[in-house]
Amino acid sequence: MKKIILFLCLICACHGFSQSNEEDDKKDIQAVLKAQRLAWSKNNIEEFMEGYWKSDSLKFYGSNGVTYGWENTLKRYKKAYPSKDHTGKLSFKINDISKITDGAYYVLGEFHLKREVGNATGFFMLVFKKINGEWKIIADTSA
């Protein structure tokens, strides 16, 4: 009987630990998104890009098709948003953060840009992966 109780306690502890890790992961991912929002709103696209995986394997899928790689994504952002009037003030509405597997989540949300050249809104789906202890966006679909 003691072994059964001990076994049940271990299962409960592991389940609680798993939920705690997921909550921590989600908080860490939200912190990346907050840092991106603040950097964007300061018209600091380079700092905004710190949330992305610095790799040629990064994928960004937008209205003009797929952009491959961190450098190309940075260039795309700089071309599309050449000034503070274009970047404006960014806000997000996060609709869902779901675990795909250990070390990977997807995020569904909406973005809102309040800016001088006209406001913009859209939707996004991000895939985050934990790389070298940091959460990074490895794929971004925004429209």
Walk me through the structure.
Mean pLDDT is 90; it is low at 3-18. A six-stranded mixed β-sheet has the order 2-1-6-5-4-3, with helices on one face. It has helices spanning 2-41, 45-48, 70-80, 84-87; strands at residues 59-62, 65-68, 89-101, 104-114, 120-131, 134-142. By secondary structure, it is an alpha+beta fold. It is 41% helix and 37% strand. Strand 1 (59-62) and strand 2 form a beta hairpin.
How would you summarize the topology of this molecule?
Layout: H1 2-41, H2 45-48, E1 59-62, E2 65-68, H3 70-80, H4 84-87, E3 89-101, E4 104-114, E5 120-131, E6 134-142
Parallel strand pairs: 1-6
Antiparallel strand pairs: 1-2, 3-4, 4-5, 5-6
* Number of DSSP E strands: 6
Outline: globular
| Strand percent estimate | 35-45%
Report the oligomer: single chain
What is the succession of H and E elements?
HHEEHHEEEE
Q: Looking across the biggest beta sheet, what order are the strands in?
A: 2-1-6-5-4-3
Low-confidence stretches: 3-18
Q: Report the helical percentage.
A: 40-55%
Question: Cα distance, first to last residue?
Answer: 58 Å
Rg on CA atoms, Å: 19 Å
Structural class: alpha+beta
Question: What is the averaged pLDDT score?
Answer: 90
Tally the helices: what do you get? 4
Q: Main beta sheet, described?
A: 6 strands, mixed
Quick structural gist:
The chain is α+β, with helices and mostly antiparallel strands.
What are the defining features of this structure?
six-stranded mixed beta sheet; 143 residues; alpha+beta; disordered N terminus; 6 strands; 41% helix
